[in-house]
Structures are given as C-alpha cells and as structure tokens.
Amino acid sequence: MTNALSRAFNLQPGDGRRAGLLFTYLLLIITCYQLGKTARDALFLSVFKASKLPYADMAIAISVGFVIAIYVTIGRKVQLRDLLVGCLLLFAVVQSGFWYLAKFRPALTWQYPAFYIWVGILGVLAPTQVWTLANYLLTTREAKRVFGIVGAGGISGWIFSGLLADKLATTRGFGTESLLLAMSILLVLCAGLVFVLWRERGRAAAAAPHSAPSSKGLRESLGMVFSSPYLMSIALLITLASLATCFAGWQFKAIAKAAYADKNALTAFFGRFNFWAGVACLVLQLLLTSRFLRRFGLGPALLIVPLAVFSSEIAVLAVGTLGAAILLKGGDSVVRYSLDKSSVELLYLPIAPDVKLQAKSAIDTVIWRLGDGLAGLTLAIFTDKLQWSAQRVSLVNLVFAGGWIAAALAARRRYGDTLLQSIRQRRLDAEKQLAPVLDKSTADILATQLSSADPKQVLYALDMFGASAGGGSHPALRDLLSHQVPAVRRRALELLDQSGDLWVLPKVEEMLKDPDADVRSAALLFLAHHAPLDPLTRIQELDGFQDVSVMSGIVAFLAQSGDADKIPEARLLLDRMIAERGEEGRRARLEAASLIGASPDEFEEQLDALLADDDVEVLRAAIKAAGRLRKRRAAPRLMQLVNDPRFREEAADALVAMGDRVLGALRDQLVDADTPAGARLEVPGILARIGTPDAAAALVGNLLESDPELRFRTICALNDLHKARPQTPIDTARLRAALGFEMMLHTRTNQILSVAGRSADGTATEVARRLEAARDREIERIFRLLSLLYPGTDFRSAHYGLRSGDTTARDHALEFLEINLDGELRRSLVALLDPTVPVTDRLAPILKRTHVAPPNADELAAALVESEDVWLKACGVTAVGVLRITSLSVHVEACLDAEDDVLREAARVAKKQLADAGR
C-alpha cells in the first residue's frame, strides 16, 4: 500500500512521513479557521447588515499590522518551535474566552465584530506558520512532490469543517456558538504536532534559531520586501489576489444573507458549501495539482484562479443569483486552496533561508491583510456609501482580477531569474574557495622584480615577460634600457622589439653606440624591424656588429624596399642564414623566420625550409611567420604540427589566421577516421576561433560523431564560437537532433548502470566507475547543447547546481529546467536528469517518446555481451556476474583471455560471481 501511494504521488524515501505530518497539521489548522469563518460570518450578519462587513475587514488589516509587529519581535528572540507552540496555546485560550461570551453573554454585541477580527488574525498567522515550517523541512524538489499532499490536508480540513459546522449548527443544544469550543480543542492538538514535526529537522537544525538575521523587526522585514524586485512581484501578486478574493467573498456572503435570514440556517448553508467545495477541491488536489505542476510548470498554475475569478464575475454581473455567487466563490475557493496555494508557496523556495522567514512573514501577513484592508475600503465606498448591489460591484472586481493575471505573469518571470541567481551564488561561493586571490596582476608582480639589485632576478623576470603574451610592452621595461648590466639591456631591448614599442625609438638610436656588441646588434635589429633604413649606411658609420644582425638588417632593407629586382638578393641572403648551423646558426634561422613573417610574401621556399627545421624554437618562429602571411600552402604541414603538443598552440594560431581559406582541409581532417585522434581533437577549437558561418556549419555537421570525446570537443567549440560571435547562425534543427542523440545515449548508460553498476558486495566496479564518468560527460554535453538552443539562458549555472552535492542547489537546477524548457523536452529531460527518480521512471518518458519498449535486465545483459564493442561487452559481462545469469556464462568464459584489460578483469570477476551463485 505504501509503495502504491509513493508511486501514485511520485514520493521518494523520507517524503511520506514529512508529508503525513504536515498534512495533519494543516488539516487541523484549516478546520479550525474554517469553523471560525463560518461562525463569525453567521454571528456578525445576525446582528449587522452585510454593508458593514467591509469595515470589519479594514479593522482586520489594521489589527494584523500591530499583531505581526509583536509576533516578529518575539520571533527574533525565540526558537521557531517555541514561537509556534506558544502562539497555538495562546490562540486556544483566547478562543475559549470567545466561546464563553457567545454561549453565556450573547447580548454583548461588541463581541461579534471583535470575534470577526480575531478570526481574521488567526487566519493570517496559523496557516502561515504551517507553510513556514514546511519551507524549513523541504527543498524545492521535495516541495514539488510533497506540497500537493500537504495542500490536500488543508482541503480535507475545509471538508471536515463544513461537515462539522452543518451538523453542530442544526443539532439541538449546540448551534453556531459550539463551533468556537471545537476550535479551542483543535488548536491544542496542533501544538503537540509541532513538537513531532520539529524533530524532522534533525539535531543541528533544531538547535539553530529559526531566522539568521535576528536583528530584523517588522520594519526591516518590509524594507527587505520593498528592496527586492522578486519579493515585490510576490507582494503585488498577493495584494491583487487579496483584493479580488475579498470582493468575491463579500458578494457571496451578501447574496447568501439575502437568501437565508436565520442565523443557524445561514451557518448550515456555509457549512454545506464548505463541505462540497472542499470535496471538489480535494479531488482536484489529489488528481491534478502535482501532475499539473510537473507537466506545465509554475506559470500556468498561477493563472488558473485569476482567470476563474474573472470569468465568474462576468456571470455574477449578468444574472446576480445565488447560483452565480456559488460559482464565483466555488471557482475561487476550489482552485485557490489546491493548485494555486501550492503554486504560490513554490515562489518562496528559491529565496535564501536567512531572508525567507522575514519576507514570507511580512508578505503573508501584513501585505496580504493590506490587500484585505484596501478591499474593505473600496467595498465600503461602493456598497455602504454609493449603495451598489452585490451584482454591480462585479465591475470593480473585473479590474482587480485583470491586474491579478498581469501580476502572476510577472511573478513567474522573476521566479526563473531568482532560481538562476540562487544557483549562480552557490557556484560563485564554491569558486571563491578554490580560486587564488591576487592583489596585483601577474605583470605588475613581475614588474616589481625588474627593480631588483640582483641582475639574475631581473633576467628571470624578463624571461617570464617573454613567456607571457604582451609582456614586453610593460613601461618598466623601458627603464631597463639604461641598466648597467649589458645582458639586461639586450634582453629588455629584444622584448620591446617583439612588442613593437615605438616609444623607445630615440633611445634605441643612441644604443647603436653602446659599448657592448650584443646590445648594438639588438639595437640594429630593432631599427631594421621598426624604422626601415639602409643597414649598410649604419654599418659604415659604426663598427662592431655581429654577422646575424648585419645580414638581417640587409635582408629587411632589401625585402621592404619595394624594388622587385632586390628580392632575389634577399632570398640568397635568407638561404645563407637558413643554412647556418650551431648556436649562431640557430640565431640566424630564428631571425630568418622573423624576417619572413614581417616581409612581403616573396619567400615561400625559405618558409618551407624553416617549417621542416628540427629546432623547436626555429619551427615555432616559422609557424608564426606562416600565420602572419596566411600561407594556404603551409596548411597541411600546420595540421600535422597541431598533433604535436610542442607546436599545437602556434600551429592552431596560424590556421586560425588563415580563416575560411583552410576550412576544407580542416573539415576533411575532422571527419577522417584515419587521421590521428590528437589532430582531430584540435580541429573543433580551431574552427570555433575562425568563427565564420561556414566554420559553424562544419562543426554542426559533426555533432553526431561516434567518438564521444570528439563530439564533446565539437559541442564545446560551438559554445565558444557562439560566445565570441553570438550573431553567427547555428542550425537549431541539427542542435535538437544532437540533443536527442545525447539523451538517448544517456538513457542507454542509465540502463546499463542499472544492471552493471555494482558488484555483489555493493562496491563500484571499474566498469561502473567508467560508466558513471561517461554519464557525467553526457550530462555536460546535454547542458552545453541546451545553452546553444536557449542562448539567453544560463544553463552553465544550472549544470553546476545539478552536479553539486548541495541538495538545494540541485533541486533549484531541476526547477530552473522545468520553467525554461518547453513541452515534451521538459517532460523528458527533467525526469531523465533527476537522480532522486527511480531509473525506470527516469527512462520512461524517453522510451515512450521513441516508442521503444524497455528491456528487462536479462535482455539488456544478453544484448551487451553479444556486442562487438569491447566496452559494451565489458558492461554486459559485468551485468551477467552481478545478476547471476548462468545461461550467459559461455560469454564470460570467452572473455577471460581478452586483450582488453577491463574486459578481462570484468570476466574474471563475473566468473567468480557465477561460481558463488552455483554453490
């Protein structure tokens, strides 16, 4: 029976007990409150006209403010449990006093408006306390599963109160006044339930105060609401809902009073209405609420009641009969206390615990009653002053119902934003714990070392600058051109040369007369690169230059002269530099590569020779030259070098610089299964950096690649491309196909894990560990594809929340998916990714969508062991051992001598498990 209920309501282990206790608590509270409402309406209307009811409603709104101020003041000093129990016992005592007055002093007419106001205050505090405690006990996803059942407790209390009120009012010797004594008894029972519920929080939570910001009073709580756009949207929703429902309630009472003049007859009518409305509400709650929330999400649920009130008001305006009034009140009450109540409570779940109690108390009490007060004032003007009938005031309430609809739409939109902010905050908090904190940038830290008195430290810092992008342009380097150590001057000048810092040109001119030959050569190279001149003129003026600097200066001059007749001479000099060997030859070849990259495109053969050089640094320089010149003929060599970790970064940069000119070669390499895996894995990143529509199309065309790692790199590349160039079009139809493909793979992985996930002793096997890693990577691919399909939505944070060990963050992430995904995708994917849902239920939507019958464990294991894929075969062998499927032992025996280590080990373990099963 328990399992059947759990499956019917989608409950997880532990949900049932909490749901049952909260159900009972709310049942007793709502029974008490509904008895009070029935009695107060009948007693008040037996003495006063219906047109005076709005004044009592205004008095409730004013009184609630004072009561809540006292409540919050006491609440910040005591534990939540003590606050709830103390309030319930106080309510019981006061209620007993009203029973005594009504029973034995009926002539005191002041007691009836006082009791009316008292019930209004009770109705504000007591139900709110139930939901506040529920919010402390449950996470977002638990609440979605449990709130439907908890809400059914309130509806059951509504039904019970209707039946009890009808019986007591029509039974001789009891009457309407007896309802007040029944309320006192129910309140005492609730106090005992709070003690039981509090133990559900655990020792740590029970020892903590109910609200972290203990210094906040009512004013601070209201300030918190008004300072938050999300809380303000909830407050506006509650206010407009209160206005509309107060109008509907008054119309119902006024029309009912006209139909029933006797006090006990009116009480019995209210009781019968509550009973039947409660029955309808309970059926709706049990059969529809949870399913509706899971299928359609929060947005449509928030719109049901305002739409029902709006349409019912049109009926009242048209006919104005008791039947129309019952339709209005019934449509409001039946849905508001089932689907709408659960939906509104969900709005509070993304709010941080240290804010939730303060904000919820202010909204559910002061803000709600503010709406009641405004409704009372408006009703007093139209009914008591202007003498409008109950039928005519429908015109006013149609305006309020329309505003309620608009407020529901706004609250739903901000709900999604708040969920995302909650997940992001948890992600940022985690990242802050891992990220190092630097007071300065790395460049500034290195710059402080440049002023060291130790030349070795200065040279080390200069080398660090040389290894970092853009480091040579730091202002601190310019000061080193006057350093007393020649090696420092030369290295600083080389870095400034690399960065193209033209601010130092005058200083470099002076350095041509530096006493150190290496410094003079570096100065000449700088001027040859950045201030074209005839190096022969300089050489004749000055002496002492090294051969490399002389030759480099001559080549630069000849190549950049614009005279085609001088290009052959430059090629001869470059050939001579490239042919040099030894340390000086290495420097000459490095300089040759640099010159080719900075010169007109006239040196193809020389560049080809350098791209075949066996020196790492020379080859890097040649690759950079090819990139600067955008040499298409160098692309095949560059794609080979991409596979070498030593040159991967430079080769990729060069290919990116060539753009669409190399797309065909890159696309061919991406799909060529004979190309080394390392080279193929680098292609998606290069295509992403090229970033053109054709590059995006090449990536999208590879989304169904069988290799999971290459598929992952392709999806990551599309993410990077879209982030850098959001205007680049990406084929959404292919993205959806890829998402469906990944979901099917994830379904298969879950199926395999269900039969091969654990060994006999419950420990994870090597196969299981690999499967779990594959499952995690599948989930990441799914979220990355979602980011492409919904580009304005932060699925990165949702992914973090889902894989987080924080239950609240995980549930917020799933809720975020529910409100942002559409239709069938939402129904399939949310269930598939929810780790608390049983495997069979997770897979059901996908299998139903694809019309695939789920295999049983034996069938799945048999299919896996016959697979040609070694990895799938290992999964099947593991499943055979775990499930003790002796009929498949021949497959286990056949794998004992397999070449693959994992498959062989899986077979060994499975054979032992089968042997143990046969004993």
Low-confidence stretches: 203-215, 430-441
Q: Tell me roughly what share of residues is in helical segments.
A: over 70%
Largest sheet descriptor: none
Secondary structure tally: strands: 0
Number of helices: 43
- Alpha-beta content class: mainly alpha
Radius of gyration: 39 Å
Shape: elongated
Report how far apart the termini are.
36 Å
Residue fraction in strands: under 5%
Average pLDDT number: 79
Q: Which SSEs are present, and which pair or pack?
A:
Layout: H1 2-8, H2 15-45, H3 53-75, H4 80-104, H5 111-137, H6 140-170, H7 178-198, H8 203-207, H9 218-227, H10 229-259, H11 263-296, H12 298-319, H13 322-346, H14 353-385, H15 394-434, H16 442-449, H17 455-467, H18 476-479, H19 486-499, H20 505-511, H21 517-530, H22 535-541, H23 547-559, H24 567-579, H25 582-598, H26 604-611, H27 616-629, H28 635-642, H29 648-658, H30 663-671, H31 677-690, H32 693-700, H33 708-724, H34 732-756, H35 766-789, H36 795-803, H37 807-820, H38 823-833, H39 839-850, H40 857-865, H41 870-883, H42 889-894, H43 901-918
Helix pairs in contact: 2-5, 2-6, 2-7, 2-11, 3-5, 3-14, 4-5, 4-7, 5-14, 6-11, 6-13, 9-10, 9-14, 10-13, 10-14, 10-15, 11-13, 12-13, 12-15, 15-36, 15-37, 16-17, 17-19, 19-21, 20-21, 21-23, 23-24, 23-25, 24-25, 25-27, 27-29, 28-29, 29-31, 30-31, 31-32, 31-33, 33-35, 34-35, 34-39, 34-41, ...
